[in-house]
Every structure is written in C-alpha cells, then in structure tokens.
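A common beginner's mistake is to predict each chain separately and then try to dock the pieces by hand. The better habit, illustrated here, is to supply every component at once so that their relative placement is modeled jointly.
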Amino acid sequence: MRYSAARLLWEGLKGHKGWGRAWRDPEPKPSYDVVIIGGGGHGLATAHYLSKVYGVRDVAVLEKGWIGGGNVGRNTTIIRSNYLLDGNEPFYEFSMKLWENLEQDLNYNAMVSQRGIMNLIHTDAQRDAFRRRGNAMRLYGAGSELLDADQVRKEVPFLNFDNARFPIKGALVQRRGGTVRHDAVAWGYARSADQHGVDIIQNCEVTGFRIENGKVLGIETTRGYIGAGKVGVAVAGNSSRVMAKAGMRLPIESHVLQAFVSEGLKPVIPGVITFGAGHFYVSQSDKGGLVFGGDIDGYNTYAQRGNMPVVEDVAEGGVALMPIIGRARLLRMWGGIMDMSMDGSPFIDKTHIDGLYFNGGWCYGGFKATPASGYAFAHLLATDTPHDTATAYRLDRFRSGAMIDEKGMGAQPNLH
Amino acid sequence: MLIPHPLLGLRDAQEFTYLGDASLLNRPDGMAEGAAEALHDYLYLRDNPAGEHRELWFHEQGDRSWLVVTRNTLTHEITQVEFAADVARQKGADQ
Ligand SMILES: Cc1cc2nc3c(=O)[nH]c(=O)nc-3n(C[C@H](O)[C@H](O)[C@H](O)COP(=O)(O)OP(=O)(O)OC[C@H]3O[C@@H](n4cnc5c(N)ncnc54)[C@H](O)[C@@H]3O)c2cc1C
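With all components supplied together, the output reads:
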C-alpha cells in the first residue's frame, strides 16, 4: 500500500480500519542469498538498498529483539555532514544527500528536518580548527558557514555568551544538518525492504556461524539453522560478541552513551546546538521536549544504562551553555551500547572468511550514517567491491597505518 | 559505581581514569620475531567480552595507583580488585 494524502482521506472516512500492517511477519526460510544480522537502522537500510537498488531480493534481516529496539531507537537523532578527514567527509555528505530524498524514496514520513546544526566556538584556536573543518566540508559540497558572536546572538539569544570561562565567540554552522525521527527511519526502511521481498524476522537471535574451509555456509539462530550465500553483520554495540562467534577479535570496545529528554516546552531551540567547551548537545523535538546528551560513560559495558556522574556532567554542560535549561524538568533518560572503534571511525568491509561481511564501529555517530552505511554495505554485498565513498572503512587499516582519527586521540576508544 | 580499593576502601569511580582491558599489561617484546603483528594485536584488538572483564583503572584523584578491576560488563558488579603492580610482579615470578 502506498501512503498518500488521498489514502489518508479515504482511510479517515472509513475509520482508519484499512491500513493493515506495515511489514509481514514471515517464518524464516531454510536459506537465503543474503542474510543480514541486526535489524537496526543499518541492517534495515542495507536490506532496502540491496533489494531496491541492487536487485538482490532473496534476503532476510534477522533481529534478536524487535526492530528499532537498539541504538536506532535510542539516539538523539542528529544528522550532519561536518567531518574533516577525506576518508569520512564524502561518505557523510553522501548520507546527507540520501536523507534529503529519503521520504520520497521510502514513501514514509521520517520527519527529516534540516533546521541546522550550530557548533559553538569558544577560543581562537577552536575558530581556526572550525574554519579548517568548514573548508573541508565545502570541498565536498556539504556547505558551511562561519558566524561571529553577534550573528550567533541573533539566532539563539538565550545562550550564555559572556560566561567568564567559556565565552561564545562564534559558531560553525551547517544549515543542512538537523534531526530525523529515528523510529520512523527503522520502520520506513523495514516497510520498503519488505515490499521489495525482504523477510524481516524478529525475535531471532544469531547464536553461531557454520563455517567450513574458510567459507560461511549459514548461521545458527534461536529459530533454527538458516543457510546463506552471504552474511552481512550490522549489530552495532554487539559487534564483538557476534564476530567472536566467527572467531574474530575486533578493534572495538563497547561503551554506553546516555540520552535525556525534558518535559515538553514551547519552541525555544531552532536547530541543533553543540557546546564547544564541554561535551553537550541539544535540540528540541516536535513534541517540545529538549533532547540532549554528552559524553559516553567511559568504561566497557553491555548494560544499556549509565551512571550518575555523566548525568551530572551533562547537566553542568547544559546549564553552563544555556542557563534557562535549569528550569526544565527531566522526563526520561536511557542508554545505548556503542561500538567504539580504535580511531573513532567505522568499518564496512569483507572479512577474511569468504562470504562474511562486517559493518560496525559506528561509535556515537552512526545514526546520521544510516542511509550511506546501508547503501555502501549493500554495494559491497552485491558487487564484492567497496562503494566509492566507503573505501577507507577497512578492517585492516590499523595494520596498514591508514587510520581515520578525526579527533587525533589514538587507540583509546573512550576518548573518541 | 564504587570501586573497592585494596588500601582505601570503597572509592567513587569518578576519582579514577579508565584505560581498558588489563591485557595491556602484557606488552609484547618489540624486538622479537613477528613483533609488528603482535604489537598490532596488542594495541588495537580487544576481546570486549559481555560478562567478566579484567580492566585497568588509574586512581588519578587518589593514591595514583593502577588497579586491575574484575567487573561484570552486563551488571557492573565488581568481584575483585588488585594492584596492577602486584599482578605484573606475579606474572614476572611465574615466568
Ligand atoms: C544515546 C545515544 C545517542 C546517539 N546520538 C546520535 C546522534 O545524535 N547522531 C548520530 O548520528 N548517531 C547517534 N548515536 C549513534 C547511533 O544511534 C548508532 O551509531 C547507530 O544507530 C548504530 O547502528 P544501528 O542503527 O544499526 O544499531 P542498532 O539499532 O543497535 O542495531 C543493531 C541491532 O542488532 C541486533 N543484534 C545484536 N546482536 C544480535 C544477534 N546476535 N542476533 C540478531 N540480532 C542482533 C540488536 O538487537 C539491534 O537491534 C547515538 C547513540 C546513542 C545510544
């Protein structure tokens, strides 16, 4: 069924009884050409592009819980393409272009809202670094603007400009950045993939791989053995656990990132604002809640909850940046498990096992990457060659020295 | 999270800096045969287990000792805390 204004009107007249389910609930078949493990944003986007763009339709997505229950439904929904390094910027800009046409492509309202992202500047050195980054963005057509303090003040007058320790001296702005309704991204990709013949199988946990003579033949799941020509793994925070079942150790640690939402308030924040002196970022949802977050907790964990010190740190960052936030009450908070890589950048690559492909290492920034990640992973699965924008995301880059370390932190995942 | 320091008792995890897997104590010999490969694995690859994890914490805001903490990454429960120096010494003695 196509969604449209006419359809809405028609269903409205008939009491909304005819919508039906958005995707099927099939039993797993004995085998598929391609099996994707992980029904998060990246797995579902891969299935969509694989079936729609690359014409591979004998595909299953296996999800251990329900789709959208992982990080795709836990993030703070920010999209942007404001990276510095050559290995990253073209990829994230490709993703931004796919976001811009996503709803037409999926026939699904994902509430893509390009209301801008503003990275605040507090020191002269930071201005230099942001100018350089802004230029890198322009080289790849992403667009950027450098604002001075007065220009920032015009747009967001409620910030604490004259903070003695961290005065606001300007901002790097990407007008095309913004937010997207994260659940709708999972559902929209799932619905479209389903319409193109993909089986989305929930409550199906992968428990092992059947590998013979260096080639993967299929996977063991809680719903039985499923044969597969190719297997693509996109399980985000669980990457190390799943790949360990194929005997692999990854350059990844799992860490928790927390997110917070306030009670609903009248519109105050126009776009996304990030504090350049502490780690704090905030936007306002359509329902009025302030959606914000900060640093990861910083220790290995698979518990989808964080600890109080980070809550305090985030609150301090918020109050330092915009004192008015002190009056808002916190409504909800939660955590998600991040696949933090050794250089802060992701992987989309084949493994040394024939037929086994890996997508992961997205750290705290993989939501914005969802469309490009799915596209590039589908390209790799269908053609056995990396997509043009994802050639740097190799698993062996630490061996060859071709790291993509945006922050220059080295092999210390909790600092990226 | 509270870390039971062997000398100082329960301390807030906030006083510590986290480094990561305690296997970082076992730095390979850089002059040995195949050192490049061994150092690659040592520096970049991690077991990253769900469950019991031995990890290095530095008591930066305290007595500045390095600890090896055994902690469950699913529940955050801490079951053992040792001085990293003792762990390293014991390893030397075993060799
Ligand atoms: C609090 C928070 C805020 C964030 N904010 C942003 C942001 O503002 N902007 C941004 O770009 N990114 C952000 N991120 C990061 C982003 O959410 C992730 O990088 C991205 O969602 C990861 O990809 P995914 O959607 O495929 O992951 P997930 O949705 O986690 O999908 C992985 C799926 O694999 C499944 N799985 C795991 N093991 C198995 C198994 N054995 N068998 C079958 N299935 C399995 C899981 O159940 C899960 O559903 C944030 C993350 C968090 C937690």
